[in-house]
Structure formats: C-alpha cells, structure tokens
Amino acid sequence: IADIQENIDHELISHEQIMSKIEEVAAQASKDYEGRVPIVMAVLKGAVCTLTAFTQAMTCHLEMDFMSISSYGKSMSSSGSITVRQDLTSDVKGRDVLIVEDIIDSGYTLDWLVKELKRRGAASVEIFALLEKPARRMVEVDVKYKGFEIPDEFVVGFGLDCDEQYRNLDCIAVLKPEVYEGALTQ
Ligand code: PRP
Ligand code: MN
Ligand code: MG
Predict the structure, then answer these.
(1) What's the predicted TM-score (pTM) here?
(2) Domains recognised in the chain with CATH numbers
(3) For the chain, which terminus, N or C, has the lower number of CB atoms within 10 Å?
(4) What pLDDT digit, counting tens, does each position of 133-144 carry?
(5) Which residues cross the membrane (predicted)?
(6) What is the number of the ligand closest to the CA of 45?
(7) Which residues are catalytic?
C-alpha cells in the first residue's frame, strides 16, 4: 500500500466519514424497505466497496445482485454510450430494486439503468449514490439516498479507479497530477 500512498496528493473524504455516512443511509433505507425484500444491486466495478459496506449496515432482508456497466471507455470523461459487460442474474419483474453507485458524474449511466430496470418491469427503482459531482451533470437523475457532493476533481478510492487501479484505497482521494498524466481511463 506504500506505493499507493505516495501517489496521493490529498484525501478528500476519510474512511471514517464514508462509513458513518453509509451507516446513516443504510439505517434510513432499512426503515424504508422494512417488510419488503429489495434487490440491492451494485453497478460494477466502482460500486463494489459501497455495496459491501452498505448491505452489511442494512437490517432488513435483501438480495444482492450485480451488473457491470461502463460509460467511460478509453477516455477520462463519460461518453454517454453504455456498455453492459455483465448482466444481473435476477429477474427484476415486480421487484423493488435499489441501485448502489459509487459516483454520479454526467448521469448517463444511471439514467440508462433506471430506464432499463423499469423496462424490465421492476416495481420500484431507487438509487443510493455515495458521491455526486453536480457540476458535471448532463441528465437529471432522481437520487433518493445521497452520500457526498464533491467538486469537479478526478477522485479515486473506495471502488473508484484511475486506469483500473486505486479501487482498493479505503478513502476517497485526489492523485498527484503527474499520476493522471500517464492514465487513459477512470
Ligand atoms: C464510472 C462510475 C459510475 C459512472 C459515472 O464507472 O463508477 O458508474 O462512471 O459516470 P456517469 O454519471 O457520467 O455515467 P466506469 O464507467 O468508470 O466503470 P467502473 O465502475 O468499472 O470504473
Ligand atoms: Mn461505475
Ligand atoms: Mg471507472
């Protein structure tokens, strides 16, 4: 982990701040879904850390599922064209689906996903997004469970990557400028 730490310029949100926010949101969501069994789904890969912490803090019954979606491709910003790399295994027809995302940037990924889940017949679709970058929003997305609003800076950690690395960092951080220069993808 030492070489990872050397590449960090500064920490934006600490592990403790992330965990306490996730616990707060999980308590609210557990109340809201009491008596139902939602499918809590991670948008892979970025949401993997948030899904783990969030579901462990939830107290109602739930199922987990995963969909791997990419909107960035080989660029530093969202392209708006969505690629499904791996689909859910659950049939969402008639089910309450709670999407867990690491970050909303342009909103293209979630806009597409919410429409897709409704097209498949989900009874309800809600979103928990750990991070939001309001400055970069291109499409409106209705987010019921919110984490942190962050400035328009390229961040890594807690699932978020830079060229597929840094997802294992336990906080949200900004890398040194020279690290980004060598990287092609978020
Ligand atoms: C990132 C991030 C969100 C999405 C947000 O995923 O994890 O899923 O982009 O951007 P948007 O609001 O502009 O659509 P990415 O495509 O990098 O895939 P990954 O999760 O596998 O890193
Ligand atoms: Mn993602
Ligand atoms: Mg990414």
Answers:
(1) 0.94
(2) 16-152 (3.40.50.2020)
(3) N
(4) 999 999 999 999
(5) none
(6) 1
(7) 105
